[in-house]
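Handout, section B. The chain below has 1442 residues.
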Amino acid sequence: MAMDDGENNAAVVTTNNSHEAGIKKGGDVGDNGACIDRQPDTVVHQAGLNQTAGRGSRSGPGAATGIRVLKQRNMKRNGSRGCVTRKTRFGSRERDWLKGDTQRGCVCLYGGTVEPQPPASGPQASSTPQADLQLVLCSTSTTVEELCSQRDGQGLYIQLHGDLVRRLDPPERPLQMVYDYLASMGYADPVRVQQEAANSDLSCLIRFSSERPVNADQQERTLLKGVFSVRKGKSQLHKWAERQVILCGTCLIVASVKDCLTGKMHILPLVAGKVEEVKRRQHCLMFSSAGSQAQTYYVNFDTLADYQRWHRQASKVVAQTVSLVDLSCYSLEAVSEYLFYSQDITHLNLRHNFMSLQGPGGLLNLPRFSQLKSLNLSHNRLGVFPECVCEILTLTELNLSCNSLHTVPVQIGNLQSLQTLSLDGNHLSSLPEELGGLSQLNSLGLSFNNFSHIPAVLERLSAVDKLAMAGNRVDSLELCALARMSHLKNIDLRLNGLRRVYSENLEAVSQVTQLDLRDNCLDSLDLSSVCNLETLHCQRNRLGTLTLSGFTLRMLHAGSNRFPTVNIYPVPNQLTHMDLSQNLLEYLPDWVCDCRKIEMLDVTHNLLSELPSRLLNSLSLRKLLAGNNRLQRVPDLLDHIPLEALDLQHNKLAQLPESLFYKALNLKYLNVSANVLESLPPSSQSEESLSTLQELYVTGNNLNENCGALLVGHQNLRVLHIAYNQLLSFPASKLSKLELLEELNLSGNKLKTIPSTVSSCKRLHTLIAHSNHITVFPEILNLPEIKLVDLSCNELTEIQLPDLLPSTLQELDLTGNNSLMLEHKTLNLFSHITTLKLDQKPTTTAGDSSSASTPWNHGYSEMSGQRNKLCVSVLAVDRFGDNVEACYGIFDGDRNEEVPRLLQCTMGDVLCEELQHSSIDKVYMCNTFLTSHRKLGMAGQKLGASALLCYIHHEPSDPGGYFSLTVANVGTCQALLCRDGRPVPLSKVYSLENCTKEMERVKLSKAIITEDNKVSGVTCCSRLLGCSYLSPWVLPKPWVHTEPLCSQDEFLILGNRALFERVSYQEAVCTVQAVRDPRAAAKKLCSLAQSYGCKDNLEALVVALHIVEDSCTCAPPVPATEQPKGPPLSLAPVPVSVTPGPADPAAPLSSSSGLVSELNGETSASELGSEAGSTASDEQTPSGPAARPERRCSLHPATTLCGIMLPGSAVTHAGLFQRQPSCATFSSNQSDNGLDSDDEAPLEGVISNGSKLEVEVDIHCCAFQLRSLGPESPKDFDLDKKRGSDYPNGKMRRQNSVVVSATNGCLLAVCGREIADLKKSPSTCSLFGKKLSNGSVVAPEDSHNLIEVALEAPKKKSGYFTAPAQQDPEDQLIVPASLEQEVREQLRGQSPLVSGPSLPCIPPSLQDPVWDHPHPPAFPSNLVPGPGPMPILQQEVYDTAL
């Protein structure tokens, strides 16, 4: 076949010799837009091939098929990086051919061997043949038969997810299979599918081989053979002889003739026999059969490796008690012919293979096993029921699950001995009548098929006692039909979409004892006619009414429904366990208190306002769960009760019964978190306590330090959570008596110290005391079992350490202690700790963009729980890319930590890469997840993780406009946005229980869903990154949602499944609102979840948002620190993170790298610098291609002059201030020192274009909201980046820098509160005082001239004042001609300067936290400039300028 544009079935084979050395790691973008590795080597034509082959030439080798073979060196084949570019692999004709049609592509073909060629220079190459990678250009219509005929190959093999290997049938089309696989993953763009198909990383997901991959371990377990010295019997009369020896199945086979299998074969059964080492001979084993007439063979092996291999495998066989051969998951198409010598096999497991009917070892030969009783052929892709197994009349157990069977043959009636038949996971909709003749059949599995009703043939199967029909399509159940099947006792109809269960007459259904109706669509359920029902599961329906018979009822599971009560008659005296959680119960029925044997009652998440006294005083109740209700009191205990666990969290309890602890002497677990308790009951009536309490959770109450004395009596206490109460201290003498304490949580109180008596708790392994006022490190490092210490968000200043730290210490968290300074000696002592968390000190380098402040900051928390293994990770980037963007993500691996760590390291880079290819949110987010899934490589084949990614950005169509938040997730991680104090869920939970559509999709793909709603018993998630071996049931395609941000958006919460299972959305929002520090808020969320009973890994990420009303913000300026020498700064100044002192009541939210100084506001005073000082000067107007447009603050492009109404402007009241950069432009004809600009070196921070000088200054927004008539052009930002090319000589004209726009206008409208804040800010304190070289600030006089302060700044080369500072009275403020007259008229109306005090400051008590004012207050009227007399402050500034 010639390669022609019109022929889609043409194929081009390109062979690439793969070596590990010399491969670059850097990526490149090829013609197809995909990011791929560079390959430096050139394309070399193979010798003897016509170079024109494949281009229409019909001469030379390969002309008949049109194949052009190219060889390329250094092609990676291990799937760790992307493939090479098409440009380096193929010629232009091949690339054009690929681009001509998306149905053409490249298939990576592994498995061949080529002789390596030594390089021309460098180290000598190895002479060992290496497996090659062949790149096959073909179309989606190219079949395996065509590819093999062109390659002279025997066949092709496919391997999915590094698991089983299957031989492809000749009609199958490899490239179409790859495209279908990528489409099922979630790729939608045909061009992207074509690119991904050529990526070598895809080999970890789908891989084609020209030869069957060899697995030595698999061969060892299926067949061992060789020629060894053999002697029969224990007698010395027998001689040693060379014989062929085979170990297969359950027998040892010895041939009669050397090197030949003809003639008589000696069979030695090994089950229950012996295999022993012969010590008198080296590498010799003795094999003996079982029984009185046992035979023995001695085999002498040549090498130690052979000896160990045979000994290991034979020992497994002799250890068996039954003749079982397990050949599952071996990718077998047929069993070995030697297996048929093992005629004693009774159990044969061929699960997860690709068994074929034909061939010597095919299914047609299985009847040769004369004693076979159990045969497992599940997951073999059979497609049709193998009728040959119906000839194995000895079968008692047959498993044909998950084989895509549509019918069952009538020959099934031949298996009269059959007792168990499993047909789950097929496409069956009916059963043959002959099946009813199997009188011994007692177990029939029909789950996850297509039955719409219960098969009538079941009436004849009198031995079947369980109806297993979960996951079918039965939408109605007639109880009378069950009555006719009197042999059925256990009915499993979960996941059927049942809508109706009815009975047309009053006929009793007496035989059914267990009924499972979970996860259906039932609105009501009346089972009063099922009179002998013992166990009922009806969770996750929509039940409004439930009526049952209570004669024999033992267990009732009815959670997650809608009923207000349950009707059971008569009283179920046999009832022991009852789950009524997540319903609408306002009271408990009276019959509940009359149950004599009730042991466990779960009524959480209902509407209960009281608990019956008779229930709590029950003599049988051992576990009562009544959390998340409306309980205001707990009835008193009248007598000793056997209660062992009591959960009353999330109620309104103000006190507990006084007799609780000395009446419930068996109480071991008590959780009363999230109530309003002010005290705890005493542990006993006397000094001697008999309390057996081991776990006590009282987090989130109003307890004070007096409760410490009441805890002394609980000397068996092991876990104590008393976080977020009102504790000022913990009594030292009381703590020393809790000697068995293992876990202590004191977070969120007002503790200043932890008593030194904590050293008496020798078993303490976890101490959590974050978010207090602790100044001294507690004496806990001498405890022998201490593992985790969390003292974050405190006021630690130093740490006194012992000479030797305990080896058990695994995690130490000291973040959020702003005054803590650690010496190198201390850090060296901490070097052995697995997880050490410290604050990274912020750097204030002006040229460091990574330290820039942003309109958001974050904090996060991770807790390992009881697993002692952290399987979660966080991705948090406040400044993502080159723009004002952010990226946050969380990853939960459930029980594995590898995949979350890989995603944490790679997913941000993948997102950055995908943003280069597409600006559509659903496209780049979906491709980010799919690419990350591919990049997991081998780790993602068996392991997986839930993932959530949040990307804050401007809309591509409006770069200077609104911020948007794009969220994508798979699995159970969730994102929650707080808007106006209300939670707004942004993600979708992809679990089978929560998503009906996903449940239906998984059912249609014939997955087996276990009773705990897990796919194949592995995961409850239908979408994950990784776990590719569960494809197509579990997919990596994410849910994507974009939400525009506004000024009402306060913060964002990201959490994993364990967090939101315990903390509701509303509670999470209220919790974060009460804590201003995002890190402390995240810590609190995790601590609350633990106190509410969570035992799993916890993860919370809180992002504080500072979005103003026009959905944009400007960054604060650089603090006045020494700037390093280097290139001139850009016009957009670089903000830094600033850490205010702990005493600052107005300190804004902090991030993990320090508190970010951020002043929120809705408008700016940059109007003076943007309009009155704009480039629209009357003196000189720029023209030509180098002319720079007017540069305003991107947040406030409106035209105004600090409270003076200008034409076309609008004024609205606003609240807080926004620190933002701007540029003030000044004009002069000559430099201030009389020198020509050619004699001057360029100055940092100064941009000159001839007669104008732009100086970056610090402008603080005034109290007005100003709207411009049109958006600012995004080209302004591009011009800023290109300004270096505007001045090729690198020289600028010097001008005076009277910073009028930086001081005037803004300060006229600044109230006392904002002045106080500005004085505290390192970046603005130079406006209010002189900053010395040591960083301190000298306070100025009240009448200090601010221009003098500004003129001091350039001499220090700090902040934005980097222009020359020599004052020139001729400097003028440039005002546009259209505005000049109005400006002068309003300035003339000002009163002359009068000395007076500065504006008064607003008390700190009036300062609102950043998150507590979605609508900022308006400014006081006396501070708002307007017509009439202006404030006297700074009037001299205008006189100087004008």
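Note. Residues 702 and 714 are 20 Å apart (CA to CA). Compare this with the example in section A.
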